[in-house]
Specification:
15 strands, seven-stranded parallel β-sheet, alpha/beta, 288 residues, 28% helix, 6 helices, five-stranded parallel β-sheet
């Protein structure tokens, strides 16, 4: 009859083989059931009755196992996606799924994240130079205090992605739609943007001096308190775009606005009126 109990447990636990916490639960339960079976036999119960009562004593064991398994696998996934303080230079993460991954204080120079789903992940204080994020999903990701020199973002998914205090010299964004992205206190003066659509993007306090946004589209974008000297929007489309210096007692910001090139740009009436009030050169702009 001991073997009958063993066979019963094996059948119940088979779908969860390999889950450490479930294996431990099985071992503990096997010992307890054997003890319960012996107690019932000592009370004079026959084998069948004792077996039935032993099994009934554990209740809905399958539901318990499922809950333990789900918790265990969730914890295992959390361990797998924590890559903080690791030397991962030139690592291959192409195509992986690592939601809420942690990459803090890590060496990721030259690593390949192309096509990876990194939703909700955090990159902080790491060396991410020359990393490849082509086609990666960076939705809800936080990238703070990073060196992203020469990193590649070709057709990367950027939704509610937060870039903060990071170096993006030579980093290239190609064919990207940036949706509700924030670029705060970040030097973008030597970042390359080609064929991008900026939708709800906030460039607050970022350095954009000399940046060329020629031919690209901006919808609901904020350039509030950003450094914009000598920026070019030649042939760009601007709709509901905000240029706000904040409170100032001088016309220094107006002088900066005058250095911006809007030749051939198209913009809505509100954006046009705002820039006109700041004395921007809009002589070659088309109002839409």
């Amino acid at each position: 009859m001991n073997q009958k109990l063993t066979n019963y447990l094996n059948g119940v636990f088979t779908p969860y083989d390999g889950v450490k916490s479930v294996t431990e639960l099985k071992a503990d339960l096997h010992t307890d059931l054997q003890e319960r079976f012996r107690e019932l036999k000592a009370e004079g119960k026959d084998d069948e009755t004792a077996f039935k009562m032993t099994i009934e004593s554990i209740g809905d064991i399958e539901q318990t196992i499922l809950e333990v398994s789900n918790l265990s696998r969730s914890l295992e996934r959390q361990v797998v996606t924590n890559f903080s303080a690791s030397n991962l230079a030139k690592s291959d993460f192409a195509g992986v799924t690592a939601h809420k991954g942690q990459f803090k204080g890590s060496a990721l120079h030259g690593s390949d994240f192309s096509g990876a789903d990194l939703t909700g992940s955090s990159f902080k204080s790491s060396d991410v130079r020359e990393a490849n994020f082509d086609g990666a999903n960076l939705t809800d990701c936080s990238l703070s205090a990073l060196d992203l020199t020469n990193a590649s973002f070709n057709k990367t998914i950027l939704v509610r992605t937060n870039f903060s205090k990071s170096g993006l010299v030579g980093a290239k964004f190609t064919g990207v739609r940036l949706t509700d992205v924030t670029l705060t206190l970040t030097d973008l003066s030597k970042t390359i943007f080609e064929g991008c659509l900026f939708d709800g993007v906030d460039f607050k306090y970022s350095a954009l001096g000399g940046q060329r946004f020629d031919g690209q589209s901006f919808i609901g974008v904020k350039f509030d308190k950003a450094a914009l000297n000598e920026v070019s929007f030649r042939g760009a489309t601007l709709k509901n775009v905000s240029f706000n210096s904040g409170f100032t007692l001088t016309k220094k910001y107006y002088r900066v606005i005058k250095t911006i090139c809007f030749d051939g740009a198209m913009m809505d009436k509100l954006t046009y009126a705002s820039l006109k009030g700041m004395e921007a050169d809009l002589s070659k702009v088309t109002v839409i």
